[in-house]
Amino acid sequence: MTPVAPTLDLERRLLDTAPLVIGLDEVGRGALAGPVTVGAAAIDHAVAATAVPEGLRDSKLVTARRRPDVAARTAEWVCGSALGWATPGEVDEHGILGALGLAAVRALGALRAGGLDVPSGVVLLDGNHDYLSPVASTMMGRLDLRTVVGGDRDRASISAASIAAKVARDALMVDLHDAHASYSWDRNKGYGSAAHRAAIRERGLTDHHRRSWAIA
């Protein structure tokens, strides 16, 4: 069955009372190595009046071969996009939810630095857990934030954020593979494959691993 394309139904409703809707989604939450990455994609009235780019889906539903092209076309479609990162060390220090909050605030900060009035918009966060507000309250102030279960599948702004984050993080892990080939990050992207776990048992952890996790 062909996955159903995400829509702009929710974004268009929210744009009746807000000038901007920003979708957020994360990649790398369950990985053993590498950063966590949060993508942010902004949609305004002009973007919402156009069609969703062909092929845009939750990044997990787009083949690895097609993702870069879909991500590039989607980045041209939205009115702003950005990425936020949190390092493995920050995952160890703050826990995964704290690190995701840091990455999300950094993504929103990059949108703001690019000229978007982030606090005036509505933020849509994929999932059912708000990891953003505890960090944003001290670093950015209060945001109008809504969690959206299945948002990466159903909501175009969140799908756009999802595919941007996935393409960027995967590319980073492939680059890191060159210096750490034993861990097969070019294939597993830092997640806990059998080859990755076997390399950890044989060679130990690198600076890119999350040392607070039980990952052997």
Give the SSE map.
Layout: H1 9-14, E1 21-27, E2 36-43, H2 45-48, H3 67-77, E3 80-86, H4 88-113, E4 122-126, H5 133-139, E5 144-148, H6 151-154, H7 156-177, H8 185-188, H9 194-203
GO molecular function, one term: metal ion binding
Catalytic activity: Endonucleolytic cleavage to 5'-phosphomonoester
InterPro entries: RNase_HII, RNase_HII/HIII, RNase_HII/HIII_dom, RNaseH-like_sf, RNaseH_sf
Enumerate the spans where pLDDT stays under 50 for 5 or more consecutive residues: none
Radius of gyration, taken over Cα atoms and rounded to an integer in Å: 17 Å
Which structural class do you get from the secondary structure elements?
Answer: alpha/beta
Number of DSSP-assigned strands: 5
Total separate domains: 1
What form results from the Cα inertia axes? globular
State the helicity in percent bands. Answer: 40-55%
Domain RNase H type-2: 19-216
Protein name: Ribonuclease
Pfam family, one: RNase_HII
Enzyme class: hydrolase
Q: Explain this structure to me?
A:
This protein has 216 residues and is an alpha/beta fold. The chain has a single domain (9-203), classed as Nucleotidyltransferase, domain 5 (2-Layer Sandwich), CATH 3.30.420. Helices cover 44% and strands 15% of the residues. A 5-stranded mixed beta sheet has the order 3-2-1-4-5. Strand 4, helix 5 (133-139) and strand 5 (144-148) form a beta-alpha-beta unit. 46% of the residues are buried. The mean pLDDT is 93.
